[in-house]
Structure formats: structure tokens, C-alpha cells
Design a protein that fits this description.
The complex is a heterodimer of chains A (about 475) and B (about 900). Chain A is built from 18 helices and 11 strands. With about 475 residues, chain A is an alpha/beta fold. Chain A folds into 2 domains: about 35-165 and about 330-415, D-Maltodextrin-Binding Protein, domain 2; about 170-330 and about 425-470, 3-Layer(aba) Sandwich (D-Maltodextrin-Binding Protein, domain 2), CATH 3.40.190. In chain A, strand 1 (about 50-55), helix 3 and strand 2 form a beta-alpha-beta unit. By secondary structure, chain B is α/β, with parallel strands linked by helices. Chain B has 4 domains: about 5-250 and about 265-270, Rossmann fold (3-Layer(aba) Sandwich), CATH 3.40.50; about 345-455 and about 595-650, 3-Layer(aba) Sandwich (D-Maltodextrin-Binding Protein, domain 2); about 460-590 and about 670-680; about 690-880, Rossmann fold, CATH 3.40.50. Chain B is elongated. The model of chain B is unreliable at about 255-300, about 305-335 and about 625-630 (pLDDT under 50). Classes of the chains: A alpha/beta (about 475), B alpha/beta (about 900). The interface between A and B is large, with 101 and 101 residues. Chain A: Belongs to the bacterial solute-binding protein 1 family.
Amino acid sequence: MRHGPGRVGLRASAGLLALLLAAGCDAGASDGPGDGRQTAAGAAEIAGEIVLASGRDVTGKGGIRQQLIAEWNRQQEAKGSTSRARLVELPGSADQQRSQLLGALQSGSAEYDVVNLDVTWVPEFAAAGLVQQLPDRLVDSDVITSVAGTARWKDELYSVPFNSDVGLLFYRRDYLASAGVTKTDLGKDTGWPVLRQLIGALDTAGKKLPGPYAKGWTSQLDASYEGLTVNGIEAFASAADGFALTDEDGRYAGSVADLQAGLDELRNRTQAAYTLPDAVHSDEADTLTDFANGRTGFLRHWPYAYRTLHQSLSDQQLGVAPLPGKAVLGGQNLAVARGSQRSAAARQLVEFLTGKESERCLLDAGFAATRLSAYEDNGLTCNAAKPAGQATAGPAGERTDRMPRDSSGRPAYARGTLLPALENAVQRPRTPLYGAFSQTFTAQLARLQGDAPPSDAELAGDLDAELRRALPSR
Amino acid sequence: MARFDPRGKANRALLVGVPDYDFTRPEHPFGVAGDLPAVAHNLTGLERALRAGGVFAEDTITVTRPRTVDEFDQHLDAAVDAAEGLLLLYFSGHGAVPSTGDELWMLMRRATIVPGTESVFRGAVPWKSVLTVLSRARAERVVVILDCCYAGNASAAWDALGTAQRQRTSLLMSVQANNRIDAGDGDGPTPFTAQLVRLLRDGEAGFGELADRLRAHMSAHHTTLREPPEPWEPQSRSATSGADVLLAAPPVRPTGGRTAQPPPVLFSEPYGAGGRRPPPRSARARGRLRALARRPGGRRGLVPLTGRRRLAAAIGVPVVIAGLVATGLAVFDGGDGAPCTPPLELRLLTDPDLEPTLRKAAEAYLTSKANRTADGCRRSGITVYSAGAAATVAAFSRQSDPWQRPTGDDNNPQRDIGPQPDIWIPASFASVDRARLTSPERTYVTLEADPEPFAYSPVVLAVPQELAAEPAADRVGSLAALTEAIRKREARAEVRRTDPENTDAGLLATIGLYGGGTGGQDPASAERAVAQTGPPSRTGAELLCTLPDDDALDDRTTALVPEFLLKTGVGCDSATRTGRMAEYPVDVPGLSPTFVRVRWRGADRDEDARDHAVEGFRTWLTGKEGKTVSASVPSGGLAVFGQDGFRGGSGGHRPLGGGDFGALTDPGLLPGPALPTSMTEALKRYREAEGPGRVLFLLDSSGSMGGLWEGPGGAPGIIAQSLAGLGGQDEYGVWGVAGEPGSPRPYGEVLPFGKHKREEAQRAIPASAQVKDMEADPYQTLVAALEYMAQRGTDDHRPQLIVYLTDDEDNNRLAEGGRLNDLLAAARGRRTPVVMASLDSGGCDKGRPDAAVSEASGGRCLDTKGDLVARLRDEVARTGTGDEG
């Protein structure tokens, strides 16, 4: 056990080491090519484990992160380096992850070197000075442009995209076929008007569809969590070109007219004629279940649903397309904690975990990779890890993975659907006060779900006023 | 990288420094904060270093201490005109930004600050105009170095330059934007220039490397004057041509190379006695730097804050604020438009029964005036979460080490309990004592509890209306007498209480059930009196919400829950549910929520601000000075607790709010909080009531689990973590479930069934469990497991449990040929509950086999819609005797 004086002693000796190193702190500056910053910082560093804090994940994707960290450790050992990284799991709840990361980095109650941040938290952690600026080269031109936009705050790089996420449209090809739709393969040009027509066709087909079918589509419209914010922004961003609720400094930049157009779009999308009534109480898990059970023909969801849904639906039954209009970016970025005493090694770890091969491994495991090369470079393979489901089944065995893959082993939809969806995606408002924004936004949008919803004009006026109160404005 | 080598060209260096100012406060209210004697050392040191550097000939270096803007302009014009190769401009002195903008101004000797809604600098040079003048230069390359407060604010104007200028102009800024910095004590140069000079003397120095090394050094060894201090990080903008610029190439020193050389000492050590430097950002160093920054009349900042309200709001350095008051500048504006910095985050851990009310309270506080700073920003953010009450007490008392620094996957309170709280609100005052460890040297956490609870709610019998006693006097008595009376009115009457592991209320109810002391009931028979099919509800609200699912059960079942839930816990099925009345057992201790400030060892980065934020919330939540208010109209947090049916924490426990919800306003003398020892004893007796437990884990090891296998969130890791509640006397084992189709024994042993040392078992399971390229046969396996456990439990009543962890991929085989019904019948017939733990988000949806199997067996169905891992650990813990102590 490491209890008691042992630990105090460790800290004291670490402090002594730092002092000794500080005296010759520029000594190591010339031993690494091309990156003076790292080596200079590295010279004054304290040896020890790099702690990477990230939320618990039991969806099966989490294992790939662990494997990549293990691979980095192997590489360090092979190089004779003493650096080792260790994953510390935080609770599965995003609210609790954010609370612990903020509270710990602000107060020093726990020591993290690398933190895995939801993309909406990056401005807050950067503005609060809790994470370090990083060298620009960590987000190079291989990172998908829209995704790279999540990494910065006020022109400085504070994080590196680890895995992305984007809204997608899943649909039942077999339902469309039963309804007599001739082209059951929706391209990326499918807009909401076409979608509504298709839903009309499904409704008309009625009895030809399996029993559970109830309504055209479902999505995460529960106002008690982030789902309604995401769906709201997707509607708002689709309604007006170049729509933005905040400027580059996080100040409110919306207008009543834009808000009204957005509300109109959201109301159109979610009207009762097309939408499963349960959607207003549904989160990701609920909508996934409803769609998998055949209750709707369409579903707005995230890339991980591709793998999950293929466990129960065949390629002939399930289709996926970019979300009509604009889709919202999700995902997580890695950042180096301001207080890290192992910054240089931490940056190297981040560079490895977000590098080309790692991103390819993440893509193969079911994540939305952040780099173009993962989607486009057939010469790039994942040797660093064995992503989920990649094992080949024995002759008598069951398939470990029902997800369709392309000839290079990527999920089959990666290049033709996922990548274009990511490239065309928009961010949620970028502000250090994102929590206050999201709370205000959903509280107002929730009024649409009430018994006597306000008019678009009235709600747009109120939303504008409330957002002005919640965020600094220009 | 290509490098521009200016040697041999017509280069110019203009070194501008302002060590003395004609107008300083307090003599001159519009003056600057003070002189900067260190700047004189900067100019001397830098000039020497440049001369020795071989890039600038002696006559090409101009050193000036301009009194006025005109003087500065003349020198700049001359340098711009003369330079053909490299033009270097260095400035050190006071830098400032106006209250309504971001632009940097450089203050000359006769500078003054004119206050107003938009402060104006006289005798100062706007940085933007300097860049404009520099753009006229013929020089091939331009390098600017700024060592002043707010130097980083210069980057915006550089970013706005045209491509051609950005291609040739490099900018080095001593500190990040919006930060003030230490000017040193005046006996030597400023810390930034001291290091700059060292590096220039140290060997060949290009701009890029210089910037990187300065940044690494300064951020590791110095902090800015913000409060709390943040690492001092010089900024740079390299010319976009891609070629670096050589700034110095002094003759190489004879021995060893620079790695072996201590840095040359050019100046007297700026860090005072003994040449000691603060170690990089250790807690002690942080404290010392902060103390230095605070010391009035100590080190002077390179510039005073100049009415830049958002910064003033954020950093509040006392010396600076005093200066502003003296000059009459508006520090706090309060109007909109001033961006707020992200608020300080408070982590609030509470008991699961209290979580909904505390969420409401926190939400009300966050938007209240009490949480506003003077400039209208939020002082703090609060995240409310809960964790099992017994596990929380154990984590505080015995796991503060891994809670602060988790080292393994199996014991990680950061994940399993939640964030390290700043505030803990247990449901019982006694839990604070239970959570304290007797030997303080082994703990990394300190609990500072208020002297008394701020609210109160008795644990009552929520009796169906038809079964309740009519006269108020009959609604008060011992638990045994009250339940006896109910049973007399209805022979089939049942009593239920919640899981004693999960909430303090459940444990307090258990104290009453066991009757306390030696004269009390035997726990096993007391447990049989509240036995139910299926596991107990986790919270009082869940219990009151579950009962109406079965009308007959609802009509005959009394719930032993906190009184306030009669108000807030009756929302589900409100139209059809049975109304309930409170009866008041005098021998069940009441809930006594208490405010506890939690401090973590070494968490001192923002100690004062955090204390302030916690205190602000405490005052709002509990009433002033930690005393609860028994006044008729409670405000703040007590109003929220009143709305939710709570009573006052002291005095006669009068209701904090009004409304008739089946409670008695004054049921007479209400029982006080429990004794810590009673709670500890009751928990121990509960865990041992039925003796050690037996758990058989079935780990789906079929091919499809391959994707759910690795890491702590993988299936073997989940099982290893769930062993946390099993002790040395409990028996358990693991079967791996996968086999050839039709195989008679479709499972293999991963961990033999028996007693284990927990740590060894936690290591053994992930090590020996393996995914097979085969299918699982859940039907055969579950039938075999039920049979196996039935044989173990023939001659005792020890609690048993089967856990089946699966991705449901082979669930279709459960229903083959109608055999699901056979399985359900078998599950009902055996007395071993089966927890179906589905790694599918919809695994427990109505109609799914997992839901059916667990329900038939009296076990729980868990899927990934909820926190599967935590819930599974709780289920296993209820079966085992748990953690000792």
C-alpha cells in the first residue's frame, strides 16, 4: 500500500528532483530535433506516470483507448524511456466528468496530466487557464477542418481532437421498399422535404409495414439533457446559412430573425405528424431501442449506432446517410493540464493517441476518426491495437462483429457517409459559458413541447432576451 | 529549417527602456504604479549580450530611455530608415490596455493615465502605430521583443498585419495576453529579460528556439500576477516565411558544450538570498509566489491595472485594486458586455434521497443574486451528484488515498463514488463521524462539518390511507407497536424499507427494525418482516414510485421512508396511487442533513477563492452563521427544503414550508439524529444477518463479446470491479459462457467457486477469462447455474446471487422452441435471484428476455441505460458481507 508517509515522501522527493533539475533547466534543449519546446520543457520535468483522465465507457469502444495507451507504453519501454501513461476512469456521467475535471484542475485536488474533454468544454477549460496551449503542429492539415475547429480557443491551440462524432440519419431500407419507394438508398443530398415525402410514403403504406411501425422518425428531444440542444442547433443551423449564436470570443451574436427561422425549422421537423411522441422523453438509448424495435423508419443518431444497429439489423434492412441539413459535431479532445509536471511527455502521448495510426484504430473500432488519412489512405492500417470485433471468427464460431466493412477493414460507411457528414458539420456555440447557454437554450425550446406552445415570434424574442442574459453580448 | 543569417548585413537594434516615470502614484493620482528599476538592468544586460552575439556591430545598437512619445518616434524612425538586414526593436517598461479595448500601449517616462469610462493614456505609444511604422522599414527581417505587462495583447495587431509584413516580422511577448507580471526587485533585470539575456549569451540563438526555451523556462519557474497565479507563458509569433532568424552567435565557450554548463551568472540573482529559485510550481512555491504577489510594497508589477474591468474582476490583486480606487477608475462595471470568466466549480456529493432537493436548491442558488460577483458574473458553478451512503462513508474513511489518486482499475472512487467533493451533505449528522478516520496521518481528506444539521425529516411509516390510524395520538409510538396495529387492521399488510447500503434513511429504518441494543430483535427475523420479492428499492422515492405498479400491493404496503417524500415522492401514477398518511415511530432516528466542507490534501491552488465560494453557498443554503432559522418564512436554500417537505434542523423541528401532505405538523417530541455507533452497528448486523453470501458470475465469452472485453470497462473488468462488496467469508466463482453448439456443458471455469482473497480474484479474472470463437448458450447455462446454486443453499439461508453479464447477442437461443418459459419457471422455483447485466442499452426493455428472467427470479435487470457497473457492484455488495469495518 502506498498510504501515509510513503506518499508524503514521494512528493517531497519529487520536489527535490525538480529543484535540482531547475538549476540546469536548459540542459536538454539540444537533444531532440525539431521541437525545442518539448525538449526544453522536458528537461525540467519530473519523472513519473502520465495520468490520463477520461470517462468510463462500457460501449466496447473504450477498450481501444486502453490498447493505444498500452501500445504507447510498449514503445516507451522499447525506446528506453521511463515515461509511462495510465488511464484513470471518471464516472460515466458527462456532468460528473466535467465537474471533477474542473474542480480538480482548479484546486489541485487530483493530479492529471492529460484530460479528455467533450468538445463543448474546450472554451471553458481554455478560458479558465486550466489546460496548456499546444504546438500548432499537433493539429495539422490531415485533421478534418471542421473537427480541427473544436480544438482552439481564441486562435490558440488548447486541445487535439481524439475522436469525433456527428449526427447521422439511420433508416430502414426494407420499410422504404415495402412502401414502394424505388430508390431505397438515400444519398447525401436528401433534404428534409424529401424526408417528409418518404415518411408520407411509409405512413400511406401503413399495414404493409411490420406491426411495431408507429411514426416516421425519432430523435433525442428530451429537454432535460443535451439532446434537445443538439437537435435544436441542427435545425437552427440548417435554417440559415452561416448561422452562429456566438462570435469567436463567445459573445452572443444571434438575432431574433435568425432565431425565428430556426424555431420554424425545428417545429417543422418535429411536428406530430412525423415524429414518434416518445421522442420528447427520449435520449440516445431510448431512440436506439425504438428504432431497433421497428417503431420508426428514420432515426437521428451518432456513429456508434452503426455498429450497435448492425448487431440486430442486416445490411438490407439498415441504411445510413448524412443528416439532411446541418449536423452537429460531438466528440472528445485531449488536452494537457496546466499544472502537469510532465508536460512534454504528456504532449508526446497526446500526439501519439491522435496520430494517424491511432485514428485509424479508433475508426476501425467504431469511433468517428478525426483525420482524413484514416478514411482515405488505404496504406494506413491499425497495427497498434486490435480494435473491437476485428478478430476473425473460427469456422464453427459466431461472427464477432456484424458491422459491414470495406475492403480495407474500415466500417463500410466510413468514407462515403461518415467523412462527408463530418466535413459538413457545425459546432454548437463556442463559449466558456456553454453550460449556461445549453441550459437556457433547452429551457426555452422545451416550451414548444408544452400544452400551449408560444408562437415562433414570441419564443424567438424570449430566447433572444434570455441568451443575452446568459452570455456576454456584443 | 532554413535560417536567415543577418551577419554582415546592415542591421539595427533599438533597445527602448523606461526605468523611471515622472508621475507615479500616490503622489500623482493619474500616474503609473511606480518606477521600474529593473528595466535599467535590462538595457545594460541586453546591450552586452547583443554586442557579444556577433550579429549587431557596436555602432548599430541604440539604447534609449525616452521621456516622450516624440523621442521614441525619432529613434524608431532612425532605426527603420537605417536597417537593411535585421531590425530588432526591444521595449521594456509599463504596458497597459484601456478599459474598453484590447490594444497594448507602451508608456513613456512622462506617461499619465486619464480615468473615465474609457481610460486614456497620455505620453504613451499605441503598439498598433509602432507596427505601422515598422512596416515602412526596408529591412529584410524585423524582430520585436516586448517585456511589459499585457505584452501578449500585442499579438492581435500582428495577426491583423498583411501577408507581406507577417512574412518578415517576428514578435516575442514576455507574457500571455491580459496578464501582469513581476518586474523583479530592481537589483537585477526583470525575470523575462534575465532569461532572454542568458539564452542569448549561451550559444547560437535563433528566434524560434529562443521563444520556445523562454516559454518553457518561464512557465516552469514563474507565475503571473493573477490571483490565483497562473503559469507565466511568453508568447511568440514567428514570421510566416518559415525561415528562422539568427539573433546571436557568440563565440563557443571552450569546454563541454552547453549541456554541462551552468548558466552564466550575469546579474545578481533576482530571487534573493542564496540564489535559491522556487521549485517549479510545487504547492509550496505556489503559496510563496502568491504571498509575494500580495505583499504590499513588495515586487511591483510591470504595470498597474488600468481600469480593465474584466481583468480586475477576475484577478483582484489587492495592491492593484487599491491603486485603482485611488485614481477613481471604474473597476466593476456590472453592465453587460464584460465577459465573465468561467466560474469556480463546486462538487457537491449527497445522499441519494436528498439529491433531487439539493439539485433544486443548487439551481436556485446558481441564478440567485447571492451567487453573483460585483460585476454580475456567476461566482460558482455547482454540480450535485449522489452515491451509495455506506460506500461514501467507507470511501471517506478508508479510501481517500485512491479517491485522490486512483492507481488501479478495481479501486477507483473517482469513478465509483464520483468527483472528489468540495461539499458533502450526508442525510444523517452521524455519518460525518462515521466517515472520519481515527488515524489522521492516513487520510488525504478533512471533513469540516457544521455544528448542527440545517434541516430535518423524521423517518415515518407511510401508511395506506385505509390502514392508517385515525386519531393523531395513535399515529405516534414505537415502530413495533405501530406496525403491529397496522397488521391488526389488515392481516396481509406489508412493510418495506429501502436498501440500507444505499441511503442513510434505509439504514436508520434498519436501526428501528432491529430494535437497537442487545434487547433488540435478531436481524435475520427482522429482515424477514420486511422481505419482499425482488431486491429492495434503492431510494425512498423509488419505493413510493414502484408500489403503484401493483394496485393490490399499493393498497396493503406501508413504506418506511423519510417524511418529506410524502410531499415530493408521490408524483408517479398520481391519479391512481394509494394516498398515504405518516405515522411516527419514536425509535427510528430522523434524517438530519448537515453541511460538510471537504478539503483534499494539497488542493490549495485556489484555496481562498474556493473557501469563499463554499461559504457563499453554505450561508445561502443553511441560513446565516451556520444556525438554522426557525423563523416562519425561511429563505434561500431552506425555502427550497421547505417546499420539499423538510423541517427545521434544530429547535422543535417545525415544518419549513406549509401544505397538507399527510404529515402531522407537530407529532410531539421527534427522535433526534442517530448515534454514529448505532448506524455502524446496524449496518454490520444487516450485512451479517443471513451470513456470508454466495455469488456465481456467468461471463458471456462468446465471439461477439470480443468488442466488449478490453480495459476496465470491458466485461472481465466489470466483474472484477463488482467484487468490491464481497469479503473473505463470502463464496464466489466465475464461469465463462461459450461452447460448441449442442455441447452439454456450454461453460468453463474462470474462477473456481469458493472463498477468495479479493485482490487475487480481481487479478485472476481478467487474466484467465478469454473470448472464444464460439456461441453462448444462455438457456443451458442459466439452468445449470440455478441448479448449482440450489445445491449450495440446501441447508442454510445464506443470500445467493447469480449474475449473467452478456451483450445479449445469443438471446435468440433463450427463446428457441419455447424454452424461455421453462427457464422462467425454473427461475421462479429456485430461490436464487438472477441479475441480468446487459451490455446493450435496451437489454432490460419490457418484453426482452433479460427483463423476464431477472423478474422471474427476483433479481434485478441492469443495462447500459443506467450506470451498469455501479449498480452491479451494489447488487453484489448486498449479497456479500462486504468490506470489513
